[in-house]
Amino acid sequence: MVWISRICYRKYGNFVDNLRLYVRGGSGGMGLPRLGGQGGKGGDVWVVAQKEITLKKMKDKYPQKRFTAGVGANSSVQALRGQKGEDQEILTPPGITVTDDNGKALGELNHEGDRVLVARGGLGGSYHSGFLPKKAQARIIRLDLRLIADIGLVGFPNAGKSSLLTALSHAKPQIASYAFTTLRPEIGTVMYDDHKQISVADLPGLIEGAHMNRGMGHQFLKHVERTKQLLFVVDVCGFQLASKTPFRSAFEAVQLLSKELELYKEELLCKPAVLVVNKMDLPGAEHKLTELQEQLQTPQEFSHLLPEDMVPKNNVVFRHVIPISAVTGLGITHLKTYIRQSLDEDASLATESLHRDKLQALRGVVPAKNTLAWGSSPSV
Ligand SMILES: Nc1nc2c(ncn2[C@@H]2O[C@H](COP(=O)(O)OP(=O)(O)O)[C@@H](O)[C@H]2O)c(=O)[nH]1
Ligand SMILES: [Mg+2]
């Protein structure tokens, strides 16, 4: 029997969890020696948190990744004190750490409206500076989405997420056969023979309507954002959340999970994802797995199984479908090896793309005159 079917491989780069930006304050204005006039200060560059933004949106909107504040006005007879240059605000999502290119922390943005100064404008020329303006601060900064774990488990209650976390790691989460057992993320560590460790977060139960903040809705979805890759966990036999709600097959569970993520933030569907089909020890599981795999090959043909508004616009393309049994341990070793490989692959692709960026910058594509080269330390 074929245990693993490779459905699709999605390239790195769809989900963005860090960005490097070039920031420069505005230059100061010239002073006016004849009348002792003072040039305006150049504008500052700030990073400001705003909920609706994602790093991916920023990257798409500003492919150059350069932000410069306005210059200070020169002192003139009409305005001896030159006007200050305009500040530049870079909008980022909350949950970001800002560092310089050497890894030195510049600040954190945790809540909507939080702001961090990343490049100061130059002072205007005055008597003390021989009426010459000071240069503005220019540097590379890095925005990193703070992750809670490498891998996030996404699944409806009872799919076996807590059991899987136990099977993979040394965590001892609460396991019970009723919904909503896990109320906050439980983080486990998967250990490898070469001492490498990978963290896995069992996230609070996702239910239909989570995007509308039903159940633990938003809290759950916020955590999903903060992981590098996702493991969708479904019960091969499907599930029924409550006696009043309809029975859902494993395929429908995948669709509903995708829909909830999509409605919250479409970008979440771009995260690398693996489908874990659990409870393969149950009778009839293999037949159901085959059926699920067929449905996943052409999901649009089976979209009539759910009400229209519950079908995701885009289907998640799983890197792998891995059948397991969290209880008997079947497939767990393979899963462990696979997630390691998948994270390593993405890490090396990310490093490659960083090198490409740096090389391009060294070739002089990005920094302008009077600014520092990429990668050097800040100066005022
Ligand atoms: N037969 C079988 N039952 C399982 C398996 N994994 C979990 N369960 C059971 O399913 C129920 C829910 O598991 P749990 O890990 O708490 O699910 P969670 O709500 O997704 O965290 C528990 O009764 C588990 O014992 C499995 O691989 N096979
Ligand atoms: Mg649980």
Automatic annotation (TrEMBL):
It comes from the Eukaryota. It comes from Esox lucius (Northern pike). This is GTP-binding protein 10. Residues 13-148 form the Obg domain. InterPro entries: G_OBG (IPR031167), GTP-bd (IPR006073), GTP-bd_Obg/CgtA (IPR014100), GTP1_OBG_dom (IPR006169), GTP1_OBG_dom_sf (IPR036726), OBG_GTPase (IPR045086), P-loop_NTPase (IPR027417). GO terms for biological process: ribosome biogenesis. GO terms for molecular function: GTP binding; GTPase activity; magnesium ion binding. Keywords: GTP-binding, Nucleotide-binding, Nucleus, Ribosome biogenesis. It is found in: Nucleus, Nucleolus. GO terms for cellular component: mitochondrion; nucleolus. Residues 149-344 form the OBG-type G domain. PROSITE patterns: G_OBG, OBG. Belongs to the TRAFAC class OBG-HflX-like GTPase superfamily. OBG GTPase family.
